[in-house]
Amino acid sequence: MGENRRLRAELARRHLVDLATGVLAAQLGASTADAGEHLTTLAAATGLSPEDLAADVVNAVAGPGDTVPAPDALAPAPARRLRRTAAAAEVAGGVGEAARTLLEGGLAPLGADSLWLWRCAEGGSLRLAGHAGVGAVEAEAWRSIPPAAPEVIRTALDGNAPVWLDGDATLPGAAPAAARAVLPLRRRGAPVGVALVGWPGALDFDPPVRRAVAGLMDVAVAILDLPDAEEPGAPVLVDLIDALPTPAALLRTGAGTGAPVLEHANEAAATALGGALPADDRSLPRAFPHVHDELVRLARRARVTGHPQHAARLPAAGRAPPAPLGPLLDVRVLLAGGDRTVVLWHTAGDPGIAVGRAVARLQSVATFQDSLTGGDTVWSEQAYGIFGMSRDEAPVPLLALRRRIHTEDGEALTQLLRALTERRTGAQTVLRTVLPDGSVRHVRIAAEPLLEGDAVTGLVGVYQDVSATRRTEAALTATFDHLNAVRSQSEMRHQLALQLQRAIVPEVTALRELPGDLTVAARYRPAAEEYQVGGDWYDVLPLPDGKVLVAVGDIAGHGIDTVTGMVALRNAQRALAFTGRPPGRLMGWLNEVTLRTGGGSTATAVCALYEPRDHSLVWSSAGHLPLLLIRDGRARLLEPPHDILLGAVPSYTYAERRTELRPGDTLLLYTDGLVERRREGLGPGLARLVATAERIAGVESAELLVDGLLGTALGDTDDDTSLVAVRLRRVGETGPAQTVTAPADA
To answer: What pTM value is reported for the model?
Structure first.
């Protein structure tokens, strides 16, 4: 790699010197050999390097519209730098390399941090030819721009003039308010492409900056004829890994004769391993000196079986110096294609993760004891919840569990029972249990036999609900399977976003009975077009103090970045809710999370905590739509606090509202896809929502209410929609089933 860069730099130097030699030969009427000698003599006499003098010679004869502004527009040093940058870009091996050269040598000194180059394609579309300063995942979202491109791109292309912007949310970039320049690329008067230059923040486009940026676009036109950048493979995985808050690494484990190496580690993983590896030694033994053999074994087993592999604990991570930072906990190895695998783990030094694991254990672990000599079966209280049973039902012995598990898991249960009763040894397995409502949970069973001599007199053990872990593994496995199978990188991005979104936000959530006579029903309606997959989410979560978290939110934008941002905010809100702090404080923390991890994104959200003891709901809103209260057949919007979006400004304090719920009340939380229509404000849409809610307010089921509202199609933007109905039951109410006929249009 280093040798290749050296050769490329030498080629660029010779190219620039050759240009200057040609200029001197024409001016002096001399041969190129004599002109070359003259250039060397002049360089020695002036104390300049040959390439700096060559840049000055070429700049001195540059005409209007040339790559570098006229000498009086820039000081000599910047003018030389731009000329050298242009020469290096012209001899690059591909559009991607040339784009990086233009950014690093020409645009970055002007404050820019990204460059996009699109080539005109068939049917009026644009195809991404090269980019720099841009993540692989983001590049995939903009690899192809249809004829109906963002208006500003068409304005620059059709008007043949640069467009200088101080913010535009329709364009790619780190933040919607950041400065951007959209410049047409033309050759002999005909359009050949478009360039987009981005800055990390606002910028005053003074004349020298505009001339320098516009001048470099002449080089951009020339490099469009170079070969396209390689299609991304591992870079997509790298961006996904970097988005994870916990340690994650991409390994190439040597399917053939190649030595195992650490291909990439995110920031958390680098910290856990004792700092970044040197570029000249990224071998797995160097990165994981104590566990590399075990990681290779797990990776190869994952490749053979086609399933993720798990290890509860591996020896200390890190290398010396510095000293190891602790063991690898809950290690998971997932296939990533070919000889690549992704390793995820936790570290003992992370108190947040440790607390989360402890809470999860309290909520999902139960004990049992079965007698095989005529005694009773005894369950701890948590077991009834795991199997979806009430406390007045009799516990089910392990030997009789077959009628409650998935038919395909019968053999696994048989093997577990044989180990306990015939071989008289401890054993464990994971079974899919079918709950009375038809839903399925994954339950890990770990058991030991009770012995008197050689006779088995009973069984003891634990049940653990591992459904969440299995769903996460399934979502990640499906993601990596899709990365391997789908050839179209654009399609891969859309499908990846859909899989992540569906794993986190199901379209239908069954009716839930919650503390304090509360009934909740929720729905998620995906965007009409898959490429519009968005950042809507909802959440309903009982908390240890008896309260219930109810929330909806919506991150601006569409695609994988939006979906991963949604997942991060939803998970952060869940974790913060366990602190027991009020909604306003939770929203303030969530605002800081958005600012620090959202990549410039903003979001609206409503966070509410329901108190069963007095049937009150305390809620806070970050620029979200007003809640809708349905009471005694009438519907009205609740005035929200006039607080700002998440991710707008730091250290913001969010206000709270308190709403007392009466028996029979229904409170509706929703996102704008439910009410927003094209070519009109939100006011008419909210009025339609109130009218429609009153029309079907007589239903006694939160389920039927949310289905009826979605059936009215109040919004027509084809955006995704989240909808949560919270209902306080009347005394003696059991929620009889009813039918709702939704009006054709509200």
So the answer is: 0.39
